[in-house]
Design brief:
Helix content is 54%, strand content 5%. By secondary structure, the chain is mainly alpha-helical.
């Protein structure tokens, strides 16, 4: 089971991070800004894990499965603990709500046409659960569960946000000139200046050599003004 942790920056509605994170972490924006791909997983424990070697985000996509677990515990007492949930044959309600909302409200907000289009393509190419496109509320949620806090997946969401804001260098050139580093920008500018100086120097040398050759040819083959 995933550990429970609180992330004030993510769960506090007054913080800048709270305001930025939902629109920033749409899967289509992750793909556009840092080239991150989405990979389906059947293991709930791997949901929102980043594979930095392949720049891939794992997503537990079985939304129909999540909704059934929410139906099982919808009318249960609010203080239902993990052991009681498991006795009912259901996963902890908070865990399931976080997983579902991270899919339908953060990665692929269904109000966003481009996100829906991306989901449809994932269904075709990677067999994502079609229920990802079906938003349900009254049948699976209690009135106070419209906006939830993230305790199980908060750490992974903040890691994902950090990866977006400070992407790790992947190619050899990016590793040499890592983004967001003033010292590396200075080194890049210095190297560019040196390369430009070398190119201009070689061009000047070539022009001088050509002029010398022209002069030599004129000396070897003088033009007789009288002819």
């Amino acid at each position: 089971m995933l550990p429970l942790t609180d992330h004030p920056g993510l769960n506090d509605t007054e913080t800048k991070m709270y305001m930025d994170i939902k629109p920033s972490l749409m899967a289509r924006k992750l793909k556009k800004r840092i080239g991150m791909k989405v990979r389906p997983t059947n293991d709930l424990r791997s949901h929102l894990k980043i594979d930095r070697r392949t720049n891939t985000l794992e997503v537990f996509h079985h939304v129909a499965f999540l909704k059934e677990h929410l139906r099982l515990t919808k009318d249960s007492p609010r203080n239902l603990n993990i052991e009681d949930s498991l006795r009912l044959g259901a996963l902890p309600r908070q865990l399931v709500l976080e997983c579902l909302d991270s899919i339908q409200k953060i990665l692929f907000p269904l109000s966003d046409a481009k996100s829906r289009s991306l989901l449809q393509s994932l269904m075709t190419r990677l067999s994502f659960d079609p229920d990802c496109l079906r938003f349900e509320s009254a049948s699976i949620r209690n009135p106070d569960e419209k906006d939830i806090r993230y305790y199980y997946f908060g750490a992974r969401l903040t890691d994902l946000y950090d990866e977006l804001e400070h992407p790790r260098p992947r190619s050899w050139l990016q590793k040499c000139f890592e983004r967001r580093s003033g010292a590396r920008y200075t080194m890049m500018a210095t190297l560019a200046g040196v390369l430009l100086a070398v190119v201009l120097g070689m061009a000047g040398l070539a022009i001088s050599a050509y002029q010398a050759w022209i002069g030599y040819q004129q000396w070897q083959h003088p033009v007789n003004q009288g002819q």
